[in-house]
DNA sequence: GTCTATATAGCGATAGAC
DNA sequence: GTCTATCGCTATATAGAC
């Protein structure tokens, strides 16, 4: 590991600022409604300069996704891993994703866009991080099913996809927009509906 | 009620065909990726002719939403209403929405598009149907909480929004794309995760 | 690498003939 | 009401000077 030059550090700082802006815009408007012009304006540089750092709009979104996946992985490796019960680790991660969403920092990629999905699956860094996170969660899911705390009827795959989907659950945004509940209430309700279900226990 | 003229019937049939196409395209690609050209091509008429029937792309989407809301209302008024327990009525509706989604007939409107949402809330027919359906479901939700079958901790509003959100749950599409499960399995798992939760009972 | 200015293309919407 | 042809705008992406 050679120490990065000052010049490289400046470059990295700028790219971080770009990804910050992309992340905010993705969380706020979604991929389709986000324009590269808006990204450039938010960063405060010319659009052409953006394309010196990232080769396409899809690459911008991918970078934002990579960073949020990295944040999730870091949470799993530290705070969540410190919890003894695997179900509690899964709940902690779900709570964390909801907090990120409430903070307006969860980039939401409409699940259907085709050029975007093509670019993402072709992105090695993104796919590697996604697989790594999925494997980590997969182990917890199986452990939680083994110790009887997670429903054994659901395939691990279904649980995994459900957790990913709840990280972008539009219900959270609607409740927040209603403005009559606190963030803490919203999170507890959505966690409850996710893990305990709508039916009474 | 005067009998509609033959001419009006032909007109209505054409508009139904248009809404059919819009519905398919919305379910397949979503609002942003759907182009008016594609709608015209699928119906087999010129784009300009479309605009004689609907004044904008947003109006096309609204018409598709109105129709699916009407279908949902019809299901509630007949099959679901025939069930004695309110919780079973809610489950029946959730199952129905998942079947519609699996059939590729559930128009999905990315929750964030601004021009679209503006047009929808300004659409009296759409809003009236949405309110009517919500009131119907709201009564069932309160009844289910009153008889102890639905979790009393969740506000009725949260349950209602969750049911709407699950009608477009992306998890279903992902599982179907995986192609290793039957439609019936997918529906049962998602119903279970929605009403019983991920945690073991 | 950053800028201004522009190329290119797709799409929503419309004009005008029939 | 249907068509062909086109307008007008927006957005991604690039050229070329500095």
Overall shape of chain A: it is: globular
First-residue to last-residue Cα separation of chain A? 54 Å
Query: Rg of chain A from C-alpha positions?
Result: 18 Å
For the biggest sheet of chain A, the summary is:
none
Write down the overall mean pLDDT of chain A.
96
| Helicity of chain A, as a percent range | over 70%
How would you sum up this structure, described in words?
The structure is a homodimer of 201-residue chains. In chain A, 72% of the residues lie in helices and 0% in strands. By secondary structure, chain A is mainly alpha-helical. Chain A is globular, with a radius of gyration of 18 Å. The model of chain A has no long low-confidence stretch (mean pLDDT 96). Chain A binds a DNA duplex (18 and 18 nucleotides) through residues 11, 35-37, 45-49, 51-53, 55-57.
List keywords for this structure.
72% helix, homodimer, DNA-binding, mainly alpha, 201 residues
Please outline what is shown here.
Two copies of one chain form a homodimer. Chain A is mainly α and 201 residues long. Chain A has helices at 6-29, 36-43, 47-53, 57-80, 86-102, 114-121, 124-146, 156-166, 170-178, 183-195.
């Amino acid at each position: 590991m050679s120490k990065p030059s000052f010049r490289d550090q400046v470059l990295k700082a700028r790219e971080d600022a770009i990804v910050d802006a992309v992340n905010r815009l993705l969380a706020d408007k979604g991929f389709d409604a986000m324009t590269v012009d808006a990204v450039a304006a938010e960063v405060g540089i010319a659009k052409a300069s953006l394309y010196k750092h990232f080769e396409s709009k899809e690459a911008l979104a991918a970078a934002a996704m990579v960073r949020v996946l990295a944040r999730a992985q870091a949470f799993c490796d530290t705070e969540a891993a410190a919890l003894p019960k695997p179900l509690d680790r899964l709940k902690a991660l779900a709570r964390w994703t909801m907090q990120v969403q409430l903070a307006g920092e969860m980039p939401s990629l409409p699940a259907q866009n085709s050029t975007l999905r093509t670019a993402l699956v072709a992105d090695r860094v993104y796919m590697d991080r996604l697989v790594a996170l999925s494997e980590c969660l997969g182990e917890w899911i199986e452990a939680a099913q083994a110790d009887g705390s997670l429903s054994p009827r659901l395939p691990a795959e279904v649980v995994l996809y459900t957790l990913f989907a709840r990280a972008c659950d539009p219900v959270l945004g609607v409740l927040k927009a209603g403005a009559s509940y606190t963030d803490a209430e919203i999170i507890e309700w959505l966690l409850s509906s996710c893990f305990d279900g709508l039916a009474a226990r």
